[in-house]
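note to self — DONT lose this again. spent like an hour looking for the file last time. sequence + predicted structure for the chain T wanted, 154 res
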Amino acid sequence: MRFRSRLAGWILAALFLGAFVAVTTFAAPGGQLRFKAVLVWATDAEESPNPNHKPADEEVRNALAHLPLKWKNYFVVTNVPITISSGGNTESTLSQHCKVSLKDIDGKHVEVGLIGKGQPVLKRTQPLPRGETLVLGGPAPESTAWLVLLKRVE
């Protein structure tokens, strides 16, 4: 009987240890925030004039589906992972003309800045919990637009 209870205790301890290792292995290290920034070109054209642009995947289309956008097609220009330390800030290049700046305010709120063609386009501070996506954008020539989807991964 004692053998069974000890065995059950060891099994339980091993499960907790495994869960701890999994959580610490896949979590962002030491107070870091991880994001995924996706630069999207919005248009009514059936194809992008740039062959490097890929049609938006299901995750991007779902993030845009609930927004009142007028365009029929969306193409991914770039997909960039961004990591900032707790309380830190960074600037990432999404394309030749587009950059995004991120600043951690308090671990829950972030300040996001968009820079288009070297000029500040907008700056916004808001909560961005894990798993949520913030969509920001601006106009482009010929009834098109560019959008930046910023998703907090960790």
